[in-house]
Amino acid sequence: MDEFFPEPYLFAGTPFAINRIIMARLIAVAVLAIICILYAKRAKLVPGRAQAAFEYILDFIRKSIGYEVLGEEKAGKYLPALATMFLGILFMNITGVIPGLHIASTSLIGMPIIFALFAYIMFIAAGIKVHGVGGYFKSQLMPAGVPWPVYILMTPIEFLSNFIVRPATLVIRLLANMVAGHLLLVLCFAATHALYFSMGGLTGILAGSVTLLGGIGVVVFEILVAGLQAYIFALLAAVYISLSIEEH
């Protein structure tokens, strides 16, 4: 568990204490900001490889998340926020396989909560903007076409489902996946180290090689999971926005 609660090495004892996870978050934000600034300043009509790769990611967000869920007419105003979530989570997830960092920035609950609150505020604000305060909460808590006595049971369930479970599942899904991935990496490479240097002999070398290959496989898997979790998070945020702004 010490992996997830490392000792601070800068500004210890203050609210601005920086440990390995905070540093990984700062590096992820800095790298993403630099990439976005360079893209904005150096974008060309005929893109180079780097620009084409970044535009492919943005196009994927626009089509596979925005247009697919919200439709082309409604997606435009929400695409910047969805892209922010996708890219922010992707870059913070990927720090788990970066040498020298070796831990996902989202493997401690604070950052998943921040992203979930961002999505939470966004889909509530979108619904209020379309339906008004009263109309939005009525549509979410009291679905049309239901006999009045049923609302006594349904309204608390709808409240829990729409305003408690949604953000909670966003947090838990992202956190659990990144924590599990880090534990798998630690187990594989710790076993490799122990087998190579403690057990020794041919058996230790063979067994250590197996765990080493397993660790490399987990690294590849973690890269896929990093992208997949960013996609799922942004996709669900788009779904929640859609549920908030639709009439039915």
Automatic annotation (TrEMBL):
Coiled-coil segments: none
Source organism of the structure: Flaviflexus ciconiae
InterPro entries, per the entry: ATP_synth_F0_asu (IPR000568), ATP_synth_F0_asu_bact/mt (IPR045083), F0_ATP_A_sf (IPR035908)
Gene behind this protein: atpB
Function noted in UniProt: Key component of the proton channel; it plays a direct role in the translocation of protons across the membrane.
Keywords annotated in UniProt: ATP synthesis, Cell membrane, CF(0), Hydrogen ion transport, Hydrolase, Ion transport, Membrane, Transmembrane, Transmembrane helix, Transport
Annotated family: Belongs to the ATPase A chain family.
Principal place of residence: membrane
Record localization: Cell membrane; Membrane
Leader sequence residues: none
Keyword Isomerase annotated: no
Pfam families registered for this protein in UniProt: ATP-synt_A
GO cellular component, one term: proton-transporting ATP synthase complex
Transmembrane segments: 21-40, 78-101, 108-128, 148-165, 174-196, 202-221, 228-245
The protein's name in its UniProt record: ATP synthase subunit a
MF annotations from Gene Ontology: hydrolase activity; proton-transporting ATP synthase activity, rotational mechanism
Topology of the protein relative to the lipid bilayer: Multi-pass membrane protein
